[in-house]
Amino acid sequence: MDIQYKKIDPNSNFSRALAFRQDSFVCSFGSDEEFWKEVGEEGCTYRDKMEQRKDDEAWCYYHVWHAGRIIGQLEFRSFSDWDKLGYVHLFYLIPEYRGIGVFDQLHRFVEDRLIMAGCSGAVLSASKTNLPALKVYERHGWYWLGPNPRHAMLDFYRIDFN
Which carries the bigger pLDDT value, residue 1 or residue 92? Predict the structure, then answer.
């Protein structure tokens, strides 16, 4: 499948980025009840962070394109609280692109970018109840690292690049 990755332009595609973030939140927590507290009114906090980081090479915000439309989103950075590990904030695909092998390409893209940035692996935080995500992470080599102390529903997972 011919997948393309384009940096998110907050001026033209922010509403899509926010909608994807919201859907991801619902997939993780079952509702968007706490979502707006995290992203701010109309997503202003999220937009401000994206704007501040858009020229920083350590931060990566991409929309995933196929057949002329946006089908997903990636958010990651080349640093974390762990030495030489990047941090993945978001792997997201719209529902019709889930479970058909597209995630493999997204995962490879993120891994390649983090390796190029000098990372030996990565960490992400995932909901204990998002079983489809946990299953795909495990299939790609992610392993449980421990609980996320910031949220009882989340655990940290790690992958080491070979």
Answer: 92
DSSP 3-state percent helix, strand, coil across the chain (nearest 5): 40, 30, 30
| Domains detected in the chain | 4-160 (3.40.630.30)
79-143-101-14 Cα dihedral, nearest 10 degrees: -40
CA nearest neighbour of 148 among 103, 86, 81? 81
Confidence of residue 33 (pLDDT cuts 50, 70, 90): confident
Helix/strand number for the chain, H first, E second: 5, 7
Tokens representing residue 123 in the block: 């960490």
Helix (H, G, I), strand (E, B) or coil at 84: coil
Q: What tokens appear for 99 in the block?
A: 């479970």
Entry pTM: 0.95
